[in-house]
Amino acid sequence: MAEQPGGESGREGLFAALKNSVATLVAIVRTRGELLVTELEEEKYRLLGLWSRAVGAAMMLGIGVVLAVFCIAFAFWEQRVLVFGLFAAFFVGGGMWLVASLKRSAAQPSRLFRASLAELDEDLAQLRRRPSAE
């Protein structure tokens, strides 16, 4: 008996193709999800490292600066009010500069997920090209 077009074998081929497409889509989503998780972990470790070094550096520099100011004030004891006033103005100015720098840095867009977004854009471009190529 001859099979008619669009019969049982046509359905099996359609379902197999649909099944393969869904499997491919799930694999793509899984790979992109793993990439996102990896990027998040890398960013977390980078930020923890930066934060711990920044706190340590700030603490050590703060203690060093306070000791230096006291040494200078003791060396110029007669002008101690002037010495403390100049250093206070310097530190307030430096603090204001750092706050402005932080605001500028916070206003810049994050680089987080750049690789994932680029890969997703590439996937979309390939999916859009595929129907016209066949």
Description:
It contains three helices and no strands. By secondary structure, the chain is an all-alpha fold. The mean pLDDT is 82. The two termini are 32 Å apart. The chain is 87% helix and 0% strand. It has one domain.
How would you sum up this structure in a few lines?
The chain has one domain (8-127). It is mainly α.
- Could you tell me the mean pLDDT? 82
> With helices defined by DSSP (H or I, 4 residues minimum), what is the helix count?
3
Order of helices and strands: HHH
Strand tally is: 0
Strand content: under 5%
Helical content class:
over 70%
The total number of structural domains is 1
* Distance between the ends: 32 Å
The general outline is rod-shaped
**Content-based structural category:** mainly alpha
Biggest sheet descriptor? none
Radius of gyration over C-alpha positions, nearest whole angstrom? 32 Å
Catalogue the unreliable spans. none
Features:
single chain; 134 residues; 3 helices; 0% strand; rod-shaped
What does the secondary structure layout of this molecule look like, with pairings?
Blueprint lengths: L7 H68 L4 H28 L6 H20 L1
Helix pairs in contact: 1-2, 1-3
